[in-house]
Amino acid sequence: MIVVTGAAGFIASCLVTRLNAANFNDIVVVDNFAVERKLANLAGKHLREYVDRNEFFEWLDANHEEVEFIFHLGARTDTTEQDRAVLDLLNLNYSKQMWQACVQYQLPLVYASSAATYGSGTLGYSDHDDALLPLYRPLNPYGDSKNDFDNWAVNQVEKPFFWAGLKFFNVYGPNEYHKGRMASVIMHAFEQINKTGSMSLFRSHNPDYTDGGQMRDFVYVKDVVEVCYFLMHHRQNSGIYNLGTGEARSFLDLALNTFAALDRVADIRFIDTPEDIRDKYQYFTQADMSKLRGIGYDRPFTRLEDGINDYVRNYLVPGTYY
């Protein structure tokens, strides 16, 4: 059996699809299944069992001998969440309990970290030096919760025989319909264009960047799950890894390609970045991908143009799931 937590969510449900495609069908999905808007992400998938996240560790105690691998992708992912108690419960303490269970039962573990741990990026975006982890200053409590766990994990004496923490950069793609404000800019662009015929981007308040020239490392979710699949088979070289493309692209590139995928004439307008997030706004992120490449992951990452075209034409327009 393969366990996937957060399984009804965006990235995890796409991972289940990838596992099914490789004939892994004994998948135990773990989540808060009371959130009904996410359940469509699992429709039609081959699954062995649904387990509520609050009952998972009791389930694992009874079934650990049958478990082959754990993907712990469940978390409170709202970057605007200010309740640190919620983040400590779901992102830090639950992950610690997962780690300790994987140590106890010697189960390999891949867990979701985040590029939000890098904060403003003043210390760069390299995943090579764990000594930098205590020095990062994330820009929100969500980033703090992810960095707190990364720090805790690398300092543990007892570790799973294989483990990897994945610092997801700006992931986009199918199955994010339920995410609301936290959905990718591409999904918001699609909705804006269909509703108004135009798209709004934040104006630059940094003289080093033109309006729309702010840059992110946008990574297609299909690439993310390929990395997860690779690590499930690799099971060596434990550690924390970036998961982006290694190539930053501008929001203007993103907007123009969304219009192109819709066969629409681009109409892009600029609005001021809200003052409440302006001092925490990142103008550039780009993953250093040499560490993952160095352990043998050699698949090319999807170009932004191709990813947007696939996402918009094959999922957003027809309203289908991956």
From TrEMBL:
Entry's Gene Ontology molecular function annotations: ADP-glyceromanno-heptose 6-epimerase activity; NADP binding
InterPro entries: Epimerase_deHydtase, Heptose_epim, NAD(P)-bd_dom_sf
Cofactor: NADP(+)
Enzyme class: isomerase
Keyword line: Carbohydrate metabolism, Isomerase, NADP
Keyword Isomerase recorded: yes
Cofactor note: Binds 1 NADP(+) per subunit.
UniProt-annotated catalytic positions: Y142, K179
Keyword NADP included in the entry's annotation: yes
SUPFAM superfamilies in alphabetical order: NAD(P)-binding Rossmann-fold domains
Pathways per UniProt: Nucleotide-sugar biosynthesis; ADP-L-glycero-beta-D-manno-heptose biosynthesis; ADP-L-glycero-beta-D-manno-heptose from D-glycero-beta-D-manno-heptose 7-phosphate: step 4/4
Coiled coil regions, renumbered to chain: none
Signal peptide: none
Domain annotation NAD-dependent epimerase/dehydratase: ranges: 2-244
Residue numbers binding substrate: N170, R181, H188, F202, R203, S204, H205, R216, Y281
Reactions catalysed: ADP-D-glycero-beta-D-manno-heptose = ADP-L-glycero-beta-D-manno-heptose
CDD domains to which the protein is assigned, alphabetical: ADP_GME_SDR_e
Any GO BP: ADP-L-glycero-beta-D-manno-heptose biosynthetic process
Complexes and interactors: Homopentamer.
Cited function: Catalyzes the interconversion between ADP-D-glycero-beta-D-manno-heptose and ADP-L-glycero-beta-D-manno-heptose via an epimerization at carbon 6 of the heptose.
Protein family according to the UniProt entry: Belongs to the NAD(P)-dependent epimerase/dehydratase family. HldD subfamily.
Domain comment, as recorded: Contains a large N-terminal NADP-binding domain, and a smaller C-terminal substrate-binding domain.
Protein name: ADP-L-glycero-D-manno-heptose-6-epimerase
Source species of the chain: Hymenobacter sediminicola
